[in-house]
């Protein structure tokens, strides 16, 4: 269709990631990502390139993938890069060095509800000899970023309509986030939010 931006046309990366032997596609995807100067797609392209690169090039590519996505808004791309780096380090025999990137990935994915990535990070941590704690399922620490933000605004006295306007969300989305927050905090009313967030935080 003529779309070449790697953030919009991900088929090249998808083909390589599924195991198709397409080194040329990985190279093309990386060139497009570098020219687009978009950290998330560039991190993904570097990670995909590492799948088909010679063994000695994999760790440098994955380290670069982690670096370019660090501190950016694309936290999921950063988490996937960390998981890939940790896995590669473990497979290369560096089990202790693998744990830090994997722990960081787990801390990014579990609270955000990225369950598949969190499960992969946890599995890799176990394979690296670590014993990660189970992600929290109750209390403020179990809230996603969005749930915590909505709950905090509700606790401050804003109505669902006001929260939706401030965060540029639909009212239904606000209601969903609040319902999830109530369940995780063990409360049934917005009047209990402030005390629950303070008492259990």
UniProtKB/TrEMBL annotation:
PANTHER family: DNA-BINDING TRANSCRIPTIONAL ACTIVATOR DEVR_DOSR
Protein's name according to its UniProt entry: Helix-turn-helix transcriptional regulator
HTH luxR-type domain ranges (all copies): 136-201
InterPro entries given in the database record: Sig_transdc_resp-reg_C-effctor (IPR016032), Tscrpt_reg_LuxR_C (IPR000792), WH-like_DNA-bd_sf (IPR036388)
Amino-acid biosynthesis in keyword set: no
Keyword Iron-sulfur: no
Keywords: DNA-binding, Transcription, Transcription regulation
């Amino acid at each position: 269709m003529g779309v070449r931006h790697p953030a919009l046309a991900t088929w090249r990366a998808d083909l390589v990631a599924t195991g198709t032997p397409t080194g040329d596609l990985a190279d093309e995807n990386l060139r497009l990502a570098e020219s687009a100067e978009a950290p998330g797609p560039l991190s993904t392209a570097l990670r995909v390139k590492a799948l088909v690169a010679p063994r000695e090039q994999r760790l440098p590519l994955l380290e670069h993938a982690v670096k370019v996505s660090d501190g950016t808004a694309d936290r999921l791309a950063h988490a996937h890069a960390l998981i890939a780096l940790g896995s590669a380090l473990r497979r290369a025999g560096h089990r202790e060095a693998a744990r830090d990137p994997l722990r960081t990935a787990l801390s990014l994915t579990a609270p955000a509800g990225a369950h598949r990535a969190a499960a992969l990070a946890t599995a890799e941590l176990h394979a690296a000899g670590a014993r990660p704690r189970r992600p929290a399922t109750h209390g403020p620490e179990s809230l996603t970023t969005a749930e915590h933000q909505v709950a905090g605004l509700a606790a401050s006295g804003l109505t669902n309509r006001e929260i939706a306007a401030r965060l540029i969300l639909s009212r239904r989305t606000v209601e969903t986030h609040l319902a999830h927050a109530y369940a995780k905090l063990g409360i049934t009313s917005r009047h209990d939010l402030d005390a629950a967030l303070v008492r259990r935080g």
